[in-house]
Amino acid sequence: MGQYYKIVNIDKEQYFRPSSFLKLMEWNWLGNDNINKLLTLLESDWKDDRVIIVGDYYTEEDDDYFGFKFEKEKGFYDVDDMGWEEVGATLGNDEEEITGYLINTTKKLYVDLSKTIDSDGWKVSPTILLACGNQRGGGDYYGPDEEIVGSWAGNKIRYSKEKPNDMELLVVGFKEIN
């Protein structure tokens, strides 16, 4: 079976769920309206907040929940049941080329979105660096650099069209393998 995901802002106790397809690799590609929504939030209201993409197979034994304490059997995937606010964002045209930088201010790293690998017109979004619980279900990411998926989860993240100064470029080779 597949694992379904939500995007959660730990600092603001907010979240949104991807529309239409919910399995990670059904929506986590550049140009998708869900990624546009996430990048819009990371450029504005969620700038420099701790944001994760959390799957419903992500369990307490996996992590300390970034310092949060939840009721038994609850976790970040259950935030809508716990009164966290569901948010929206105004989107631009999802057909336009996505450029700019996904920036991890905690680790002082950034990814240049224009350098992502094109695979038959599809570009895996480096936002999968925020994913918790990858490789537990169908529809998760399996491919080059899979070992770094989730390595930015719980870090302070932002998106900018301006190249960051005093940070190191992280080159990722994400490409979905069919």
Properties at a glance:
178 residues, globular, 19% strand, nine-stranded mixed β-sheet, mainly beta, 9 strands
Notes on the structure:
- The chain is mainly beta and 178 residues long.
- It has one domain.
- Helices cover 8% and strands 19% of the residues.
- The chain is built from 2 helices and 9 strands.
- Strands 1, 2, 3, 4, 5, 6, 7, 8 and 9 form a 9-stranded mixed beta sheet that branches.
- Strand 1 (5-9) and strand 2 form a beta hairpin.
- The longest helix is centred in the N-terminal third of the chain and has 11 residues, at 33-43.
- The chain is globular.
- 37% of the residues are buried.
- The mean pLDDT is 85.
Could you name the ranges where pLDDT drops below 50 across 5 or more consecutive residues?
Answer: none
The overall strand count is 9
Report, as a whole number of angstroms, the end-to-end distance: 17 Å
Helix content class: under 10%
Count of separate structural domains = 1
Identify the quaternary structure here: single chain
Number of alpha- plus pi-helical segments: 2
Overall geometry comes to: globular
